[in-house]
């Protein structure tokens, strides 16, 4: 449907030209920009952090959806708020106190996201969701850390379950999303935001891919 938001994952973009990539994505019709913050510990890649998000903030009006795939996410809330992140997503398994962290993110003026790895059950996020502390659930269809992995279809069951329980929450599917097949699977299951790296940045015509994802 037309109400699907697209969040290109900058992990698949050119890190030496983030301003150009953000502009290109805005021109392609994306509303959000998904930024994977990986610490090389929680997941096996080391990407970028709050200082880079701060620089990006000054160059784009896209909604900056920052996905913290890091240990000790609570230690980074203030830095990301000051950097101008719009949403901060964390993995409950990595947090000392998920509830306190969600409250801290909101208090700092950001939207709260909770991410589920492919192997994480929905129960990891349910208490937070039931208390109304979450704006967006990120249902990962690949292991955190790297783009270009195959879409794990079993995560669709979690999307269906969450959509059933929470009709108005944002549900993102992250990883392996393409216009050929998996975007439709994710949307049919109830996702309203699609995160896509390889399929958008790997195309010569990102605008066409963004429209195809919206219409899948
Ligand atoms: C994996 C990330 C994803 C990834 C998606 O750590 O959370 O955002 O960049 O990339 P693709 O679309 O290539 O699977
Ligand atoms: Zn991500």
TrEMBL record:
Family note: Belongs to the ribulose-phosphate 3-epimerase family.
Name of the protein described by the UniProt record: Pentose-5-phosphate 3-epimerase
Shown segment, full-protein numbering: 456 to 671 of 671
């Amino acid at each position: 449907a037309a109400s699907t938001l697209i969040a290109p994952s900058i992990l698949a973009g050119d890190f030496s030209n983030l301003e150009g990539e953000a502009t290109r994505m805005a021109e392609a019709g994306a509303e959000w920009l998904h930024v994977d913050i990986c610490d090389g510990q929680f997941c096996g890649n080391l990407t970028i952090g709050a200082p880079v998000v701060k620089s990006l903030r000054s160059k784009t009006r896209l909604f900056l959806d920052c996905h913290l795939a890091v240990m000790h996410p609570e230690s980074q809330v203030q830095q990301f708020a000051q950097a101008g992140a719009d949403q901060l997503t964390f993995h409950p398994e990595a947090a000392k106190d998920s509830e306190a962290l969600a409250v801290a993110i909101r208090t700092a003026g950001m939207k709260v996201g909770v991410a589920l790895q492919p192997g994480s059950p929905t129960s990891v996020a349910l208490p937070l969701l039931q208390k109304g502390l979450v704006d967006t659930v990120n249902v990962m269809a690949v292991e955190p850390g790297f783009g270009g992995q195959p879409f794990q279809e079993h995560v669709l069951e979690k999307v269906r379950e969450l959509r059933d329980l929470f009709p108005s929450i944002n549900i993102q599917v992250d990883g392996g999303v393409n216009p050929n097949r998996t975007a439709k699977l994710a949307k049919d299951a109830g996702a309203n935001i699609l995160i896509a790296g390889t399929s958008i940045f790997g195309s010569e015509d990102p605008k066409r891919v963004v429209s195809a994802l919206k219409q899948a």
